[in-house]
Q: What sequence folds into this?
């Protein structure tokens, strides 16, 4: 095709067809078609430092300005022609940063021939599950599940052929929450990014798929009335055991202590149930949380209810069960909590307390919300919860109508005091 266009341009220059750098383009008039481009200024090609001999290109893609150093002027012109050809024809990928290179579909397929989306998923999964990366990837449950979902949909597709609109259509067709779809998109994008670092692909179609806006959704903070009902259910379990069932009674009391620590310290479930006794300092009323999701250790201080709970846990005779030799217990021998998973007893207690749409993780939301209601600023909440940013902490805070009204009334009282002093 290019050879035919070149022949036409030589025989019939009045057509306005020119072939520069092997990429056909339409010129507006014969003047541009016959112009010797390397001898004159070309829009989009410039020398950053005059006389240096190092030439750059610049262009806009989706409103974003991209600048890239090329070198020789003729090479810069050729590269810009390539960008314009790909952008107008859709035959390839135009990068949005200087770190990447424009590639036609033919070049992409040549470089990554045979690499499928499933290959990319398997590649990043192997990376995530590498024991040496354990400090980076604390979550070993959700990534495999999401990658499996992606493989079922696009696994046999060539990675270079998948288009952004196909990903968007797939996500839009799901009957799931926007946050769930965003996580799937992020996982697919991560697989492509890792594949690019490994030289398996040159494009990332998921990058051009917009994330969906996510609202606050259901308020996930436990109200005072709900907490009272939940505690009554748990205390009834303790009272029902009586003196003839000491082990069952200790287990029921253990559940109350688990709730006290969760509400009073806002730990992630893994942080709480993997906490060892050496990291609990009862004398100083603090604990040290290690091996966290963010990779940064943090110190959390105890309130009176939490201190009482830790002393109660210390006094119990319960211990984490040791499993059989072929299924060893991975928990530390000096772990604080004798029961390693609250799922069953917590679900039962919620049902009996008539609390719906609530998860164990929502106790962490409750912790952050109550700190905010008691005047803690965003930085304090971020440090206590172990978040990377205050923006993350903000998503955990669910202020109720009463709190907002009191805050507004407090603002009004403050302004009235200023006016009184001014008089």
A:
């Amino acid at each position: 095709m290019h050879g035919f266009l070149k022949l036409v341009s030589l025989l019939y220059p009045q057509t306005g067809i020119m072939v520069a750098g092997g990429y056909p383009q339409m010129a507006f008039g014969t003047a541009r078609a016959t112009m010797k481009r390397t001898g004159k200024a070309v829009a989009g090609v410039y020398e950053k430092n005059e006389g240096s001999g190092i030439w750059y290109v610049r262009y806009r893609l989706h409103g974003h300005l991209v600048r890239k150093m090329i070198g020789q002027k003729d090479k810069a012109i050729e590269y810009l022609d390539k960008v314009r050809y790909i952008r107008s024809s859709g035959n390839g990928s135009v990068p949005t940063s200087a770190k990447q290179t424009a590639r036609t579909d033919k070049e992409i397929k040549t470089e990554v021939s045979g690499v499928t989306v499933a290959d990319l998923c398997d590649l990043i999964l192997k990376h995530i599950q590498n024991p040496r990366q354990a400090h980076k990837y604390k979550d070993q449950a959700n990534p495999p599940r999401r990658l499996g979902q992606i493989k079922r949909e696009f696994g046999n597709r060539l990675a270079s052929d998948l288009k952004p609109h196909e990903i968007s259509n797939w996500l839009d067709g799901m009957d799931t929450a926007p946050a769930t779809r965003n996580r799937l998109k992020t996982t697919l994008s991560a697989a492509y990014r890792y594949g690019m670092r490994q030289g398996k692909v040159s494009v990332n179609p998921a990058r051009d798929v917009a994330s969906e806006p996510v609202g606050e959704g259901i308020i996930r903070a436990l109200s005072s009335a709900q907490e009272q009902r939940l505690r009554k259910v748990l205390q009834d379990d303790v009272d029902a055991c009586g003196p003839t069932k000491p082990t069952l009674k200790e287990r029921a009391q253990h559940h109350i202590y688990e709730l006290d620590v969760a509400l009073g310290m806002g730990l992630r479930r893994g942080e709480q149930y993997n906490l060892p006794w050496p990291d609990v300092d009862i004398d100083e009323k603090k604990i040290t949380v290690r091996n966290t999701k963010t990779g940064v250790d943090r110190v959390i201080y105890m309130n009176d209810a939490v201190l009482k709970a830790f002393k109660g846990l210390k006094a119990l005779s319960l211990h984490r069960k040791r499993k059989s030799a072929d299924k060893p217990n991975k928990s530390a021998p000096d772990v604080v909590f004798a029961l390693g998973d609250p799922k069953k007893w917590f679900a039962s207690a919620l049902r009996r307390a008539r609390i719906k749409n609530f998860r164990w993780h929502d106790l962490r939301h409750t912790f952050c919300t109550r700190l905010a209601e008691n005047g803690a600023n965003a930085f304090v909440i971020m440090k206590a919860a172990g978040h990377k940013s205050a923006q993350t902490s903000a998503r955990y805070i669910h202020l109720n109508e009463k709190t907002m009204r009191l805050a507004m009334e407090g603002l009004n009282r403050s302004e009235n005091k200023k006016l009184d002093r001014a008089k």
